[in-house]
Write a structure and sequence with these properties.
Blueprint lengths: L21 H4 L2 H8 L11 H6 L6 H12 L7 H6 L2 H32 L7 H9 L2 H37 L7 H15 L9 H27 L14 H18 L5 H6 L8 H28 L7 H5 L10 H34 L9 H24 L3 H28 L7 H30 L14
Helix pairs in contact: 4-10, 4-13, 6-11, 6-13, 6-17, 7-8, 8-9, 8-15, 8-16, 8-17, 9-16, 10-13, 10-15, 11-18, 15-16, 17-18
Length: about 475
């Protein structure tokens, strides 16, 4: 991935041009800003900050970005998450994880505001963590985990978008000759073109469209589930849990790990970086917008899907609406429209999660003193971003069972970045009294979700092992 290897280009100081340690890299942008004088070119900020993470947005733009990062087709797995815990515990867990993630993201925003008030505005998660925790290894840990998550989500989005195209193609041409990799190439070409949008801020209207799309397909899927639940061919509704205590416990923890992954994003500091300074207080409004959308788009399909299918609900509720045997439980036009809306949103999600990689690339390859569309900067941007998309597409084509691998990455990536590090950073940066409720709640969250991450990783590895017999390199089908 970009930014790895001996050169570590993301550690170059934009002030001196020399290699910087992680702790000094944290302050490079601010130090450069301090040396900036009116009338001089704004070469102070490195190109990654100046071009990709430009700070021009409003709180609602940040809300659009955050909503795209959190609210995606993974909401269609929520009925399956309820299946592992039942009505009462399932809805309680969904609400608890929503509250904890909102609280954790609020804490990250408060830590960013705190650092900004002290003259150190951070625009990258890795630099924020290294500054607050004061440890060089934290910098490398965050950048490694964040890169794995972002590349994984981008690759998974390409694979699932191609799967959507294949579903539509198969329904229109059952005997067609096109294979999965053909559709992966189509998606990659479109994504490579869209990836030339120069900055995170330039995605604001695409991400507004993504927000609208999430309402569209969740309403359609929920309506289809209600229709299926009341139809004459409705499956029997059984909401009982397993009689085995160990299996019941395992299923519950697996469901919690699913919920944790669904609410994860891992790029909140980079999203807050798009806000025009001062950013203090604006991210809370963006979070409120995001979670207002999430409340509807998470609860509606979760409740209707589990109500309609009970213990028979599949890991993706669309599979329950389109059973392998028997007639479809929803109109073909509705299912086709859902697939189209999901396909379009997957492109937006891939763009959002690619921004950190593009920022790392641009920081080392572009010249902030030149225009972003100058030949000096445009050529490497087109080449590097196209190469990144091509690499993700190649992995998607080679490993069409990538979803299982992403499950492991999500369990060991989203949980530390979105649940553990926020509470640790808050306790260290703002130093609440050790016996205060805030400090104790933060410690409890850290302990509980560290356990959830470990158990979720075990559950994901177990599924990987169970599905191993289905894996084929460059297969024409996606392993669910």
């Amino acid at each position: 991935m970009a930014g790895t290897g001996g050169g570590t280009p993301f550690l170059l100081s934009p002030v001196t041009g020399r290699a910087a340690t992680p702790s000094s890299a944290v302050f490079d942008v601010d130090a450069a800003a301090a040396h900036h004088h009116p009338g001089k070119p704004a070469a102070a900020a490195d190109a990654g900050a100046a071009f990709v993470l430009e700070s021009k947005g409003t709180w609602w733009h940040a809300g659009f970005h955050l909503t795209t990062a959190i609210v995606g087709p993974t909401v269609l797995t929520l009925p399956y998450a309820l299946r592992g815990m039942g009505w009462g515990l399932g809805l309680a867990a969904l609400t608890a994880v929503a509250a904890v993630t909102f609280y954790a993201y609020f804490l990250v925003s408060k830590v960013l505001d705190h650092c900004e008030a002290q003259g150190r505005r951070h625009i990258r998660f890795r630099e924020l963590a290294a500054d607050v925790l004061g440890s060089g290894w934290v910098f490398y840990l965050v950048v490694t985990v964040q890169t794995a998550i972002n590349a994984g989500v981008t690759t998974g989005s390409i694979l699932l978008a191609a799967d959507c195209l294949q579903i539509m193609y198969s329904s229109l041409a059952p005997n067609g000759t096109l294979k999965l990799y053909h559709f992966i190439i189509i998606v990659a070409v479109v994504l490579a073109f869209l990836s030339q949008l120069p900055s995170f801020h330039s995605l604001r209207y695409i991400n507004l469209g993504s927000l609208i799309l999430s309402f569209g397909y969740t309403i359609l899927v929920s309506a289809a589930c209600i229709r299926a639940g009341v139809s004459a061919s409705a499956p029997s509704k059984d909401y009982s849990l397993s009689s085995s205590g160990s299996e019941k416990t395992f299923n519950a923890f697996l469901s919690i790990s699913i919920l944790a992954s669904v609410f994860g994003n891992g790029i909140l500091p980079e999203i807050q970086a798009t806000l025009a300074p001062p950013a203090a207080g604006k991210m809370v409004k963006a979070l409120a917008l995001c979670y207002a959308v999430a409340f509807f788009t998470f609860y509606f399909p979760a409740i209707t899907g589990y109500w309609a299918f009970g213990n028979e609900v599949q890991s993706n509720v669309l599979q329950s609406l389109m059973p392998d045997s028997g007639p479809s439980l929803a109109p073909t036009w509705l299912l086709g429209l859902v697939v189209v809306l999901v396909l379009l949103q997957l492109l937006a999600i891939a763009l959002v999660y690619s921004q950190v990689a593009y920022e790392i690339m641009e920081k080392s390859s572009a010249d902030a003193a030149r225009g972003r569309f100058s030949g000096r900067n445009l050529a490497p941007r087109v080449a590097l971003r196209t190469a990144y998309v091509a690499a993700c597409a190649f992995v998607a084509a080679m490993l069409p069972f990538f979803g299982d691998i992403v499950g492991v990455v999500g369990a060991v990536g989203f949980v530390p970045l979105d649940f553990v590090l926020p509470v640790v950073m808050y306790n260290m940066a703002l130093a609440p009294p050790r016996r205060s409720p805030v400090y104790l709640v933060n410690v409890a969250i850290m302990v509980v979700f560290t356990g959830v991450g470990v158990i979720g990783a075990v559950a994901s590895v177990r599924k990987l092992v169970l599905d191993a017999g289905k894996f084929r390199l460059f297969s024409d089908t996606v392993v669910d």
